[in-house]
Amino acid sequence: MKNTINFQALTEYAKSFSGLTDGHEEVLASVKDEIFQRIPNITDAFYAKLITIEKTKPFLEGRIEQLKKTHSKWLESLFSSAFDSHYTEAMYKVGDVHVKINLPVEFMAGSMTLLSNLIISEIETLTLDSTKKAELTNAVISAIGFCLLIMQQSYQTSFLQRELEPFLKMTGISETLFSNLSSAYTPSN
Questions:
Q1: Which residues contact residue 172 at a Cβ distance below 8 angstroms, ignoring those fewer than 6 apart?
Q2: How far apart are CA 55 and CA 157, in angstroms?
Q3: At what angle are helices 32-50 and 22-30 packed, to 10 degrees?
Q4: Residue percentage of the chain with pLDDT more than 70
Q5: How many CB atoms lie within 10 A of CB 181?
Q6: In angstroms, rounded to a whole number, what is the distance separating the alpha carbons of residues 114 and 104?
């Protein structure tokens, strides 16, 4: 059953939880040149840590160099993109890909925490006043929270879809019928 996602509504929803604002986007963009220079170090440190976690190894081995390229591009997007419905759709697809490779959801959430810590450590080395560093730290936390929420939403939808497809095939129920039955169902109190 294919869900139609309202990416504008999802963007607003994610921003409401993450606290991401236009002001945060401006702060992120204002340091992109300095941060872009540090992305290779952040990415190297990130994957050096991930490979030490035993359960992540099967997802990383033989792929780290390609993953680093993709990861670096995404990091650049944190500091150079508008967090709009197009960005939301792209992040949603990232979550969907993670489901397709059976990446446990806690890996994604844990990775975002590791990444936040690495970026914040880099922020501390920038030649900015303490107020600007605090604003930038808040912006990074909000941007990463935004991305995490979008990917978790994608995980939930994609996982349910993956579980539903065999059920529909086994029972012979069409997606339309299932959708209509689901819409009509009201749980009893």
A1: none
A2: 24
A3: 90
A4: 93
A5: 10
A6: 16
pLDDT in tens, 119-168: 999 999 988 899 999 999 999 999 999 999 999 888 777 666 666 677 77
Count of positions (residues) in the chain: 189
Residue whose entry in the numeric block shows the structure tokens 């169902």 = 185
- Residue matched to tokens 């936390």: 141
Q: Are 117 and 175 in contact (CB under 8 A)?
A: no
Interatomic CA distance for residues 113 and 77, integer angstroms: 18
CA distance 112 to 91: 13
Section 6-30 average pLDDT: 96
Note the pLDDT of residue 189.
Answer: 52
Pair of tokens at residue 118: 């690495």
d(CA 74, CA 77): 5
Q: Residue 117 has which token pair? A: 């810590």
Cβ contacts of 175 within 8 Å, gap of 6 or more: 1, 2, 168
3-class SS shares of the chain: helix, strand, coil, % to 5: 80, 0, 20
Q: Are 19 and 145 in contact (CB under 8 A)?
A: yes
Cα 96 from Cα 106, distance rounded (Å): 15
Domain architecture of the chain: domains with CATH: 17-170 (1.10.490.10)
Burial degree of 5 (CB within 10 A; 0-12, 13-18, 19+): middle
